[in-house]
Design goal:
By secondary structure, this protein is an alpha+beta fold. It has 15 helices and 18 strands.
Length: 450
C-alpha cells in the first residue's frame, strides 16, 4: 500500500499485527485481516473507506475488541480500522451539559475526566476500563446503571459518520429535542458498524449525584431473589443498579480472587441507590423490609472501600469463569422483570437436564441476565451440547416475552438465531436499509444478518 492514497496513515500488514486483530472477546472463530490501519482523524477514515471501496476491500471498524458477539471479527479481504489513535475529548460544554469525543476514547477514562468536573456519563459496561465509546455506540451498550439511567442510545445526541463511499453525514445535533425527518442517529446506534463508521460523537452528561448507598442482599432461595427484584421495582423504587449473581458465580469469584462473598447462599443482589441522602435512606429501609419478608439478609456497605470491594467482585466474574471451563458461551438474554423468577428456575432446570454448568449474573433490575454456558471447545460432544443448550435458553426467553440480546448485539455468534426473534418482513426492511447505506456491502460484512 506504499505510494498510494493512504500515504501518511499508519497501516500494518505484519503477521503479528494481523494476529492481534484477528479475534475479539467472543467465541467466534478468529480470521486474519489483509491489513490493520490506525486512523488519527476523520480525513484518514475517509481516505481508508474510499480506498476500500475502489479496491473491493471491506472495512471492519474496531474499538477495544471487548465485544461478546464477534462484531469486530475480520472478514475476507478486509482492512481493520482500529480507533486507538482517535481517543480525544474534543469539547466539554458545561452550559448545555454535553461532551464531544472521538470514538476511541475509553469509557472509564471519560467517566473519570467528567467526574473531576462534577459530572458523570451513566452508561457503564463491565468492561468500562477497556471498552471504547465508539464500540459502545456500535452495540448500544448498557451496564449496571442502565436500570435508572438508560443505555448508550439515551445519551447520544449527535454522530459524525463516514459512509461506505467516503462521504460524511451528521446525524442528530446539539439540541435535546429534534423532530425533523427520520432519526438517522438512532439508526446508527446499535448497527455494529454495518451502516457507517462513527468518527465524532456528542453525548449528554449529568451532574454527579449528591450521595450513593450500596446494599448487599443475600437469599437462600434462587426464586426469592427474582421475586425481590419485582417487589422492589413495583414499590416505586428505581435503584441506580440492581445486579444479580447466582451461587456458582459467587463461588467462581471467591476461588479466583477472594473478596469475602458468601458461598452458602443461592443468590445475591447488589443494589445501589443515589440522590438526596434523606430520600435514599428511606428507600434503603423499604428494600431491607422487602428482603426480610422473602427470608433474605441485608447489609449496607459501610464506606467507599467496602462499596468498591463489592464492585470489584462484580467485575471479576468474567475472568473468574475461565477457571471453571476453558470456554465460556456468554449470552445476554432479557426478560420482563416479572419473569425473572421463572427464567432463573428454567436456567437451573436446563443445567440439571443437560449436565452443562450454567452460571448466571447480570442486570436483574432491567431483566438482563448474562447466562454463561460453561464448556470445553476441544471436547466436540460437550461443545455441541453447549450450543444446543444456548438454543433452548433462547427459546424459553422468547416464550417469556424476552429478547436474545440486551446489550451485546448480534455480530456473528447470534446471527443464526436472529430469525427466532425478528420476523421475515422486519428482516427484509433491515436488509433494505443496509443496502441503501452500504450498496457494495463493504461495511463490516457478515455481521447481524450472517
Amino acid at each position: 500500500m506504499k505510494n498510494s492514497p493512504l500515504s501518511g496513515i499508519q497501516i500494518s500488514t505484519d503477521k503479528e499485527d494481523l494476529i492481534c486483530y484477528s479475534f475479539d472477546a467472543s467465541i467466534a472463530e478468529s480470521a486474519l485481516p489483509q491489513a490493520v490501519a490506525w486512523p488519527k482523524n476523520t480525513d484518514e477514515v475517509i481516505r481508508l473507506v474510499k480506498y476500500a471501496n475502489e479496491n473491493n476491500l471491506s472495512i471492519i471498524p474496531r474499538g477495544a475488541g471487548t465485544g461478546m458477539a464477534g462484531a469486530s471479527i475480520p472478514s475476507e479481504n478486509c482492512i481493520v480500522l482500529s480507533f486507538e489513535k482517535m481517543r480525544k475529548i474534543l469539547d466539554v460544554d458545561t452550559k448545555n451539559m454535553t461532551v464531544v469525543v472521538e470514538p476511541g476514547i475509553v469509557n472509564g477514562r471519560l467517566q473519570k475526566e467528567l467526574e473531576y468536573l462534577g459530572y458523570f456519563y451513566p452508561p457503564d459496561p463491565a468492561s468500562l476500563n477497556i471498552c471504547t465509546i465508539g464500540g459502545n455506540v456500535a452495540t448500544n451498550a448498557g451496564g449496571p446503571r442502565a436500570l435508572k439511567y438508560g443505555v448508550t442510545r439515551d445519551y447520544v445526541m449527535g454522530i459524525e459518520a463516514v459512509l461506505s463511499d467516503g462521504s460524511v453525514i451528521n446525524a442528530g445535533g446539539r439540541t435535546y429535542k429534534k423532530a425533523v425527518g427520520y432519526d438517522l442517529k438512532n439508526l446508527l446506534i446499535g448497527s455494529e458498524g454495518t451502516l457507517a463508521i462513527s468518527t465524532r460523537i456528542r453525548l449528554k452528561m449529568l451532574p454527579l449525584p449528591e450521595d450513593i448507598m450500596t446494599l448487599l442482599l443475600l437469599f437462600k432461595n434462587l426464586e426469592a431473589s427474582g421475586t425481590a427484584v419485582s417487589k422492589i421495582i413495583s414499590s416505586k423504587i428505581i435503584p441506580r443498579t440492581m445486579e444479580f449473581m447466582d451461587r456458582l458465580a459467587m463461588e467462581a469469584i471467591e476461588n479466583y480472587k477472594p473478596t469475602g462473598l458468601p458461598t452458602d447462599v443461592d443468590a445475591l443482589l447488589l443494589i445501589e441507590l443515589d440522590g438526596y441522602p434523606a430520600t435514599i435512606k428511606k428507600e434503603v429501609e423499604r428494600i431491607v423490609d422487602i428482603c426480610h419478608s422473602l427470608g433474605g439478609e441485608a447489609t449496607v456497605a459501610e464506606d467507599d472501600m467496602a462499596r468498591e470491594r463489592l464492585w470489584e467482585a462484580r467485575r471479576s466474574i468474567s475472568p473468574a469463569l475461565y477457571h471453571i471451563k476453558p470456554t465460556k458461551i456468554n449470552e445476554d438474554i432479557v426478560v420482563p422483570r416479572d419473569k425473572i423468577p421463572l427464567i432463573l428456575t428454567d436456567l437451573q432446570r436446563i443445567s440439571e437436564e443437560s449436565g452443562i454448568k450454567i452460571i448466571s449474573f447480570g442486570h436483574a433490575g432491567d431483566g438482563n441476565i448474562h447466562v454463561n454456558v460453561m464448556v470445553d471447545r476441544d471436547n466436540k460432544e460437550e461443545y455441541a451440547k453447549g450450543m444446543e443448550t444456548v438454543k433452548r435458553i433462547f427459546e424459553i426467553t422468547l416464550k417469556l416475552g424476552g429478547s436474545i440480546s440486551g446489550e451485546h448485539g448480534i455480530g456473528i455468534t447470534k446471527a443464526p438465531y436472529i430469525g427466532m426473534e425478528i420476523k421475515e418482513k422486519e428482516l427484509e426492511l433491515m436488509k433494505g436499509i443496509k443496502g441503501i447505506f452500504d450498496p457494495r456491502r463493504i461495511m463490516n460484512p457478515g455481521k447481524i444478518f450472517g
